[in-house]
User: Fold these one by one.
Assistant:
Number 1:
Amino acid sequence: MLSKGAAKKVTIYVNEDTRHQLGPLYEAILTFLMHKGVAGATASRSLAGFGAHRVMHTTKVELLAEHLPVRIEFIETAEKVDELLPTLYDMVADGLIEVQDTTVIKASSLQSPPKEQQPHEIRRGKARLMRIFLGEADQWHGEPLHEAIVKRLRMMDIAGATVYRGILGYGVKGHTHKQNFLRLSRDLPVMIAVVDSEENLARVSQAVEEMIEDGLIVFSDVDIVRLVHTHSLAEASEASS
């Protein structure tokens, strides 16, 4: 599976009716990519188009529809793309191959093989606790501020964050915010708690500060005790490598 970082995006344009040995060329390309262990590839059929032959092909005319362009796209590491390109170059006798630099922001899979249950391991150490206090009604570009902060923390690879919604509180303005059965306050206090290393919290604190107009950020030294399965430790090591 691809990892976050620099990568290459390859786009191949061929005609739907172009053959390769006993089948369509686009199917042969997809089969080749799958056998070579490419993370994933997609073939899309166009509604209309023209190429070097200067003939417009469209689904409106049955005869011309057989010659519609097909676009095949996949993303892989630069080393993998260099390995695949010579064969793809030979396969695409009539078409176009394009390679672009790209960046993988997120690469994940919901499917994982079943793993044998492992005993817990206890991990202890020092860490930092960052608590962010703000109002439930605070906004950031049209969405609740606390949701936007959690999204930002996740994108910056913070281990975890928890949002707590208060039932009673007041801030520096002296206004009391309270929830009762007859009326729901629209600006109840919200606290976001984040536990991570001092280096990671120092890295993200400036980004969080820029998002908050009226709030409070508090840092504390904490001792952590974490119970984890041994296979979870292996997964964490693989993800960080």
Number 2:
Amino acid sequence: MNGSSAVESVKDAAVKAPFGAANRQRLIDQSCLAGTSELWLAVYRLLLWTDKTTGLAHCYESDKCQPGKPWYQRNLRFHDWLSGRMAVPLGGVADQLDLLFRRTADDYARWSVQQYQWLLRRAVVQRTPFEGRGFPEPGEDPAIIDIIRDVLGSKLTGEPSASEWRSLTRRIRELIAVENKRKNLLGEGFEDVLAAVVRGAVAAGSVQVIQRCVLQAIPGFGALRAGDKQNKVDLALLRESDQHRTLVTAKWSIRADREKQFSAEFASYVTARSDLRPFDYVLLTNEFDPARLERACEAPTSNAYMFSQVVHISTDAVKAVYGDGSEATMAKVLRFIEDGRLISLDEWVSKLVSSPSRVA
């Protein structure tokens, strides 16, 4: 396949699957992450979003960040900190964020229009035998129309046509549907963005970065035994100088069910190891909940920590959100930052090649 054919193939994949891996990787590659001086900022620009119910940069669960609730003030501090670090007005933060999702959504919108027009042409043929019998038109949604009329009332200077109402309701539903796809993009997208920023930051060839690989593909881990479930590693970093392995579990946020998975995941890695060489087990997250961060930092295995290192996208952001750290759990997390148990993405990557490994 020549160069132009390869490009066309990628474009075709993007059109057919806007939220798929090929299109996501294409957009990440276009973001020019190589040589980015602040890795946390690159990650936030691509993946962080603003909560539509508060207008603030998202740092915690939306329902807990609503006005009047404790996390609303912390969210205000996060948005203020981000505005200052990005050197943009408070009202301009949203324009600097969510680039990967917004560009993917643009591709999805173009694809959706093409698909809708194609389906409508087919629908005309399908509806022909039933013409004149009063079947509802595709896209009709009286509930949405009633809400709009109720809110706008006399502000409507004229009555939209039936086709205009259908077009409006369809676009509203599409907007909701696209927003619901964010969690899908955020899962693998987080891994892909992290892989890209690490590759761009380390010396060429010094560290091999692989995302979503089976454990047995990593040197030093044995073949899958009969009856065992196949394990996939979010990110595997192989250091060329000494062939040291770092297995990364990358989770934008840490839900309760994920916390339970960590120990089982680590135990399976230890069991599958076929040599005596050490490996690091690292958690990389953007979680702000202090109790979850505390448990991650303290998670034990035998007489050591389970995670060789806990890495947050930005520990400066954590400090800003926690303010004076007056709450006990927040104060403890701040001490973890001071002690180097919880470090930032930029600090972790800078140590990736030069630091000696920890034995797992």
Number 3:
Amino acid sequence: YRRSLEAIRGITIGAKGPGGNGVAPIPLSDVADVKLVSGAAFIYRENQERYIPIKFSVRGRDLGGAVLDAQRRVAKAAPLPSGYRMEWVGELGDLQNAMGRLALAIPLSLALIVLLLFVNFSSLTDTLLAASVLPMAMIGGILALRLTGAPLSVSAAIGFIGLFGISVMNAILVVAAFNRLIDTGYDRAQAVLQACQGQFRPVLMTSMAACVGLLPAAISTGIGSQVQRPLALVVVGGVLLAPVFILTVLPVLVDIFGRSRVETLPDGEPALAPAE
């Protein structure tokens, strides 16, 4: 039946008889226009449906923003006829799946950090004081992404998780030093000042080590940099500003909400001194 166009036109098909009863054979040419035209070289099928794949790559910008821009332009310039639908898949689907997992991983990480802080301090006040550096650390990471124009990608979200860990570790140093000084008899003002002076070098060294280690990745432009660069930018920007907040804002919070000096009553029982 495929030897020629005439052979195809002559294929008989069944049609209703003149009186509406029975089936009468008629040639295909009576109901169809058979001719040679340019068409698809290959017909793709998925789930017993035909589809036409249109592929494009993203360079020089984030995947999510590029796809959203493309979706708006396509919806405006190419309305689909009835019976057709459009699906955006590929790396976008992987990105959406990763974002869904991060929506669970980030709150879980924050909850785990707070739990470990409470296990370390056994005090809700000290736990909240140490956890207060989390929003302070985010400022530097967000500012680094903003200044460099990097997108808030999966890699950047993972960088924020690492930044939280580094910042909380530095906060533990300050709060723990303050508590030790309070236990030895210092008042609040002296304990805060001594804690900041004593922990200045450890906090600075911890932050600088992370910054120097990830600085090459933060300024890289080679192959693969679009994956590692947002993570490094978040950590580098965060650890550059986090020590400033940890040694300026956190001491103020500790001075206001931290524990008071323990004094001894005449009968030998300990008592909390009033806040100064």
